[in-house]
Fold this protein.
Amino acid sequence: MKPFQIYNSLHRAVEEFVPLRPGIVTFYSCGPTVYLPQHLGNMRAYVFVDTLRRALRFNGYDVRHVMNITDVGHMTSDADAGEDKIEKTARAQGKSPREVADFYIAQFKRDCASLNIELPPAAPAGDHPAPPQSALCRATDNIDAMIAVIGRIVANGYGYVTPSGVYFDVEKWRGPGGAGRLARQSLAEQHAGQRLEHSPDKKSPHDFALWVLNQPHHLMQWDSPWGRGYPGWHIECSAMSMKYLGETLDLHSGGLDHIPVHHENEIAQSESATGHPFARYFVHNAFLVGMEGAKISKSAGRFPVLDDLIAAGINPLAFRVLCLGAKYRSELAFSIDSVRAAEKNIDYLNEFARNLNETALSSEQDADWTAEYAERFCEALNNDLNTPQALATVLEMVAQAYRLRDQRIWNTLQNFDDVLGLDLKKKLFESSTGLEPPEISRLVKEREEARERKDFARSDELRNQLDAMGYLVKDTKKGSVVTAKRSAT
Ligand SMILES: [Zn+2]
């Protein structure tokens, strides 16, 4: 198989992906700021992150994935100006910032589950002697880690302490007139047209806050060596990526909008603290556009969210298919018609999976003719994550199966689906007829899980229970198939 290639924003070129340690990938993704529901444009980024992680796994890598959740310090402007986004919502809703964050984290997790996005496990709060290697971690649970990094930056001479906060000395880091690594812009170009908050304490208006002091109206505050205050937005990503994944990351993702400010600042903070390169590959997804015109969100002035699609009777995975149908570096036009068109593709694949016969399900070897499709799929995937081509290959393979009246493609199809994340295997639980009541599907799934953890006593018990309810379960190589017994109908 051709090695995995990806566009590296650091070098503005498609490059072969080679991690630092063979077989292991450390991957950090900038996650959501949890003060509103994530709109579909936000969710496109997480579909991209999930597909990339799955593609690396498909290539045999052990992917250690960390995503942050911003629940403090992100101001209404990406620079330091304005109000803390979480606190603004908290004031408007009469809730505590923690309540606001908890609410929108739960909603984010639900949306990810509906889109079959596999998030890393939630990290336990506070210090742990052996941090997990994959984690979904909250900024407010990692204040100590941020204080430690700020301390290193100050000790190395790149941060300075003033009454209003600890600031990063951007010009000292970049050198006179120096350009940023990613955006390749000078500070003047980078901030052209922006109104920068010029605190008299800052050496330069381009300097940004690492730790904010003396803001008594701010609800969330912590003690630090510099006084009581709260972190700036950018420092959390430097601190948490370091804590969980080490000082040099293989891969770092975010949206294109992160390039000029957030990611430049992350690089500056991390490298001035450690003296090592921060991330070896930066990848950025393009935007979802046209949401303003989509007549779907009822309240004006709000971008559509996944619940709007669900309320319109659309399978949420149709949105996943829509995202996969475009290259991640291209803008993708959103419209309700485009989602409905994508839904047809998922219906087509589900229909095929649902009607698979037992020969196809239990055969260890797929038909010879599938090899060509497998090759094309890998080729597309490893060519800078060309998901539209990968998806087209899958649809063509299924069409060919219909044409040849040969269903022996199930192993190959499942391998593809491990990357595309369309959950086709689930259709097996709806099984031969697709008419089982949800209770039966649930029991079959529970039995499958018992088998996976080798709890055969429980699995037999569930088989007997299903039998008593009139359903026969057969175990095939790739999962269970359930059929209604004739006598039961
Ligand atoms: Zn970040």
User: Anything to note?
Assistant: The radius of gyration is 25 Å. The longest strand covers residues 62-69. The CA atoms of residues 346 and 437 lie 22 Å apart. The chain has a mean pLDDT of 90.
